[in-house]
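Full entry
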Amino acid sequence: MKHILIISGYGPSLVNFRLSLIKKLLSRGHKVSVAAPINNFSNNLQQKLLDLGVDINIFFLSRQSVNLIDDYKTLFEIKKILQNLKPNIVISYTAKTVIYTGLVLKYFKEISYYPLITGSGYAFSTRNSIKIKILKYLMIKLYSKSLKNSVKIIFQNKDDQSLFLKFNIIKDKNLSYIVNGSGVDLNFYPFTSLPSKPVFLMIARLLIDKGVREYVEAAKIVRSRFPNAKFQLVGGLDKNPLGISADELKVWINQGDIEYLGELKSVQSILKSCKYFVLPSYYREGIPRSTLEALSTGRPIITTDAPGCRETVIHEKNGLLVPIKDSVSLANAMIRLLNETDENLEKMANESYLLAKNKYEINKVNKSMIKIMNL
C-alpha cells in the first residue's frame, strides 16, 4: 500500500476532475490525501472527499499574482504538509502547484514526484508583450528547476510535451508520458440524439484567450444570415488579467447576439439541448474538459487548431478545425454545419461519441495514470 498525496491549485477540480482517479486508487488499497487552497473549495465538495476517507489539507495560494511574500508562504505551507503526511508519492497539477511542489521536494528525496501538466497556459500564449516575455522566461527557469525532482512527467497532449523539450525544461523525452486529458465519464454524459433547433453552445471561463470574443463576433455574422440560430454561452467571469469584464458581457447580452446562461454547476441538460458545440480557444489547454463532455454527449464540434483543442476533432469527421483568433473562419464553419444534412450531422455526432469512448473514456485515462506510476 502506498500513501498518495494529490496537490491542486484549485480545490473543486479534485472532485470535478480527479474523483474517479481517487476512487480507483482507494479501490486498489492505497491511502489518498489531497491538498488545495480554500478558495471556492466548499464544505459540500470537501465532504465528498471526506466521505471516501480522504484526508484534506489546506494551504495558501495566490493564483493570479506574482508576489514573493505570498510565494514564500505557499512554499512553506506545502513543505509543512509534506513533513506531516510523509507520502510515498506526490501528484500535482496546475502551474503554480507543480512548480512549488517540485521546488520543495528537493528536501524530500524519498518521495516520488509525478507532476501532471494540464496545459502550459497564459505564459506560453501567442501574445508577445514584454510582460508575457518576462513571465515566460521566469516560468521556463522555474519549471526547469522544479521538474528535476520528478520521477516521470505526465502531459495531456503532445504539443506541451514538445514545448517543454524545445525550451529544455525537460531534457529526456523518455521521462515524459502522455495521457488523454482528464477523461470523461460516458455514463455521466450519455449520448443523446441531436435536437432539431439550431443551437450553438460554448462552455468556458470568460477569458479573452478562450475565444469568447471570436464566438460573439461569429454569432453576429451568422445571425445576419440565419436569424433563427441561437448562440448560448456558459461560464463565469474571471479575475484573471485576461478576463472579460462584466460591462463587456452586458453589452453582448443587450445586443441579443448571445444568450448568456451564467456559470452552471451541471451542464448535462444544456449539452443535451444544443446541436453544435464550439470552443474557439487559443489558451494553451491540456485537453479541454468541456469539449470531452460534448464529445461524450455526441455533438459535432467546432474548435481551433490549437494545442489541446486540436486533439478533440478529426477535421470533417466529427467536426471542424478553424484558425485561432479568426471570427470569420469560425462563422464560416458554423454556417457550414447549419447547411449540413441531418444525416451528415448524425454521422459527426456518432464519430464524436466514438472518439470519447475509444480515446478519452475516464477508466482508460485512469488506467494509463496508474500504469505510469506503477500503482
Q: What stands out?
A: The chain is about 40% helix and 15% strand. The first strand starts at residue 3 and ends at 8. The CA atoms of residues 160 and 315 lie 21 Å apart.
